[in-house]
Amino acid sequence: MNKITLEIYATAKINLKLSKIFLKRLDEIHRLDSQSGDSMLRLITFQEWIDFLLHGNRLMFANLTALEEEAFGKVISCFQSVNGEQQQTLAENRSCARTSAQS
Hints:
With 103 residues, the chain is mainly alpha-helical. It has one domain. It is 91% helix and 0% strand. It has two helices and no strands. It has helices at residues 3-32, 39-102. Helix 1 runs antiparallel to helix 2 (39-102). It is rod-shaped and about 100 Å long. The two termini are 55 Å apart. This is GL15146. It comes from Drosophila persimilis.
């Protein structure tokens, strides 16, 4: 795996761990008041959770964009290499055809 792929994987793992932490935190808040929990504390927790998830998503999007650009560069390089080989083979075939015609 390349560096960008590893970063995407790591970000996804971090998001999963953070989600578990926030779910545990919400459960603890709910236990404080078995009726409804502290609504304001729940709201703050949800807001923090969303902020973390949005940040993680931005990181993954940036890494995916970098991965796409890297892949595109490799495809273009491969295409140019094949195109160059094709042009060289075509030139060699023309040269052989001229040599055959002159003989």
